Amino acid sequence: MSVRTSTGHNAASGRHRLASLPSDIRRSNRRAVLRALYPNRWRSRADLAKITGLSKVSVSDVVATLIDDGLLVEGGYKPSSKPGKPALLVGIQVQGMNVIGLDLAQAGTLKGILTDLEGHVLARASIPAPDAKPMPLNPIMDLCKRLQDQSKAPILGLGIASPGTVDTAGRVLAAPNLGWADLSLAQALREGLGLEVCLANDADSAVFGERCFGGGPANMILVQIARGVGAGVLIDDRIVHGSHYVAGEIGHVVIDENGIPCACGKRGCLETTTSVPSLTARIAQAPERREEIITLAGQALGSALSMPVALTNIDDIVVAGPASIATATMLETVQNTINDRVRSRFIEAVRVRPSALGSDAAALGGVAGVLRERLGVF
Ligand SMILES: [Zn+2]
């Protein structure tokens, strides 16, 4: 189910509405009101008019529609020293609608969460990732339906974090690990599930989740150490996609020309020292050298990140990955390596830290994408 349109609802209720407003103005008015209340701010209609610049009549109209849609609720009165009727407050009805976020990039697992409108996780589900290539879509839809069945409220939309190259129109251009190429994933799932669908690359999704729900700053790099190594880059609150949607694909940049041969045909790519499979294999061969192997990987990653840090002046670096790999030693080594190489009279020290959202960052980024797309709140 999707949010009803203002126009359709107006006809049904017969209540006075500004029916002559074009739909794009209605949409932007709705978004302005939601932004003024999100997250968890309670305001009177008069205050909403002041904040949004809309007329009181417009605000009352929008608020009535949003209450009907289950997105806002009335509650409490504004404290007032003046005599007369106190103003009734409205706020977001946090569990009025729910959102589903899926992370398709974790090794061996498809993971899903169901959240309320503020990103609080209400339910989880996961299934083993099918081995078949191209990976079929039915298991993804089954995972969604399991989460949908657990929801006590209508679903606002589905946000997906996919590995590989993803454009801004809902297509996966290439995801070799899943065997996908030129796949209109958002459209296929929209038709299969009857839900609004937002799609993003997993590292982009994770950095957006960290920004929206993890308290991350407007300038940030999030590095995902997974089957490969990729980064999401946020500059001035915008995700950097680049000319061909591959910004942040740092895994096959050569760090050591004399290094280990890589599956891509080159030698010494970042992934040969720092991906989960390469680290796991090397640690298995020499468990007593675990700390040294992780330190070397941290040095390679820190070295790779030094130039982008200097280029962008980003000073908040998130390193996300399995707890056995993204250890304190790894994070400390990345931080020390960047600071040794970059810090100067001009550039301050960077902070390297784990994700505030743990392993939920990418799925929560999917949720945040739905909230941005459908409600305009991020
Ligand atoms: Zn390579």
From TrEMBL:
Q: Does the keyword Ligase apply?
A: no
| Protein name in the entry | ROK family protein
Q: Where is the composition biased (Polar residues)?
A: 1-10
Sequence similarity:
Belongs to the ROK (NagC/XylR) family.
EC class (word):
transferase
Give the EC number(s) under which this enzyme is classified: 2.7.1.2
- Name the keywords, alphabetized: Transferase
GO terms, molecular function: glucokinase activity
Q: Which SUPFAM superfamilies match?
A: Actin-like ATPase domain, Winged helix' DNA-binding domain
Domain of life where this protein originates: Bacteria
- What is any Pfam family matched here? ROK
Q: What are the leading ranks of the lineage?
A: Bacteria, Bacillati, Actinomycetota, Actinomycetes, Bifidobacteriales
Ranges for region Disordered: 1-21
